[in-house]
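pinging the channel bc i need a second pair of eyes. not urgent but kinda urgent?? the chain im working w is below, pasted from the shared doc
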Amino acid sequence: MSGFLYFVPGKTAGGQVDLAELGLDGVFPPGKAPAGACMEGPGGDRGWLMAIAPKQFEDFRYSPNAQEWHRAMGGAFWVGWDKQDKPKPANLQRERLLDGHPIILADGNSWQIPVARLAGMTTGYVLPKVMGLDEDGNPAETVESRYQMLAEAADIVYSAQHGDGGTVLPYEEVERIAVGALSANYRIGRWGIRALGILTTENMKDILLWLIDWPTLKRFQAELAAQAAQKKNDATEPETATV
């Protein structure tokens, strides 16, 4: 099966599992996903086993020798996968993939980071918007609620990058934004990301910059520098006389 498996110890019915409390409310696809009580799961406990759209429902089971499992959230639940089918971006991609820039993370795979604000924009966003009305009844566009976190993150990153003297964001804030950027395009949350080990202290910084279209800005800067160097070179070349 593809994607993640989740196991919540001590729970024997889906109604007992609070996905929001576990930070898993955004990782499951719409519609029915395999889930059921498990007499013995990771750690030897009874609990509730869940999966993200496996290839076949009959493949859905706890198989300790064939699966890799990690405790998450201090043991509140477990996250795992089939050893022969480790989750990859293609397995986790959402139905709508936001435009952005690719980045190679620590697993060696290319993940697409959405762009929330284009290079050269000081305000505003290029995220999907709802066509609505403002308080005065005039046409207004607002970022879709599911992407509001990306809009707020773009403001934070832009201010940190372009503010006077620069701002160093707390490590926890950097991780929060990086996780939010990945989860916008993929069915993955903080604990799945940690279990896969795809983030590092360095690539998290790049993910934040990708939100504000940093690769495009650096490309523009490189092109301008090349043009300036060419003009300087043309100006210093000696003129040759025609005989």
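so The radius of gyration is 23 Å. and Residues 95-217 form one domain. — does that match what u expected or am i reading it wrong
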